[in-house]
Design goal:
By secondary structure, this protein is α/β, with parallel strands linked by helices. It folds into 2 domains: 172 residues, Rossmann fold; 86 residues. 43% of the residues lie in helices and 13% in strands. The chain contains 15 helices and 9 strands. Strands 2-5-8-1-9 form a 5-stranded parallel beta sheet, with helices on both faces. Helix 11 packs across helix 12. The chain is elongated. It starts with 6 loop residues before the first helix and ends with a helix.
Length: 301
């Protein structure tokens, strides 16, 4: 696989190497370590090189959302997350105009309790959104557009021009906001609805597969002082459960995030006691099994 590690710095662009975030930094920012696959690191660097959004898909709990912040912390860049809801409009990510507050201030002008010059200054009623702040920032900014598939079907298309040209016009003032530096944009989707072809054409795509081969390392990174034997046995029991779910009819399979929650509880008990429990009925099943049908199928060894 081609390595962009030497090319990006020569072009004056940052290079993501997937380095582990220090314990001190994790505590300072309230985040967890992130262990990306080499292929994912390459996809991130391709997005940086081409200045295109990186569309991430994968099972819930696989780490799609956390990647953007991990990239921003390693590169020392500002981070702007935009969590999409069913009511979110594309314009919300650019800016918002507070017409209600301006009307209120105009009424205060009439009774002499507010300065007319303030009401006439529309800039005071404009608030930049996530993309607006990223464009205006003098530093290159990492932007997360999380769960884009939750929004209306027209939402992705409404962002095409702004993401392509990296600029937009504030309609109320006519002012153009142009990106000082192209933001590094991550877009996540859970495939609740299809994304338009025109939007997909402008993105790079990466599917985060379930990290079977990395599970032990992931647990060790998050819980470095845990007994190795406990890590190995717990991960093996988790792998067995996951394997049964893949062969069975379970729609919701256990995820990496649930493994970490489960192990966080296991490690609080004496090692020998936990090892004994892992040989019998699945301990703390409430963390891993989220449907009654799953309890019936997988609770026993």
């Amino acid at each position: 696989m081609a390595d962009l590690a030497a090319i990006l710095p020569a072009k004056g662009k940052p290079c993501y190497r997937g380095n582990l975030i220090s314990v001190e930094a994790c505590q300072e920012y309230g985040i967890s370590p992130y262990l990306p696959a080499p292929e994912l690191i390459n996809a991130v660097n391709l997005a940086i090189f081409l200045e295109r959004p990186l569309l991430l898909k994968g099972e819930p709990g696989c780490g799609k959302t956390r990647l953007a912040e991990a990239v921003s912390r390693e590169l020392g860049l500002p981070y702007e997350p935009w969590y999409i809801k069913s009511t979110t409009r594309a314009k919300d990510g650019l800016y918002s105009y507070d017409a209600v507050r301006r009307l209120h201030d105009a009424q205060l002008v009439r009774i002499g309790e507010e300065n007319k010059a303030k009401v006439d200054n529309l800039e005071l009623y404009i608030k930049m959104g996530v993309l607006g702040r990223a464009f205006a920032n003098s530093q290159q900014t990492v932007v997360l557009i999380d769960e884009i598939d939750k929004a209306d079907i027209d939402f992705p298309n409404d962002l095409l021009r702004e993401l392509d040209e990296q600029k937009f016009i504030i309609e109320e003032t006519g002012k153009e906001v142009k990106a000082n530096l192209p933001p590094i944009v991550f877009v996540t989707s859970n495939d609740e609805k299809d994304l338009p072809d025109a939007f997909l054409r402008r993105c790079l795509f990466y599917y985060i597969e379930f990290p079977y081969s990395q599970l032990t390392d992931i647990v060790k990174v998050h819980f470095p002082e845990s007994p190795p034997e406990l890590v190995e046995v717990a991960v093996q029991r988790f792998r067995e459960l996951r394997g049964k779910m893949e062969k069975g009819k379970s729609g919701k399979k256990v995820s990496t995030s649930e493994l970490l929650d489960w192990f966080a509880v296991l490690r609080e008990f004496p090692k020998d006691e936990v090892l004994g429990k892992l040989e019998g009925e699945l301990p703390f099943a409430e963390i891993l099994l989220k449907k009654w049908e799953d309890y019936l199928r997988y609770l026993k060894t």
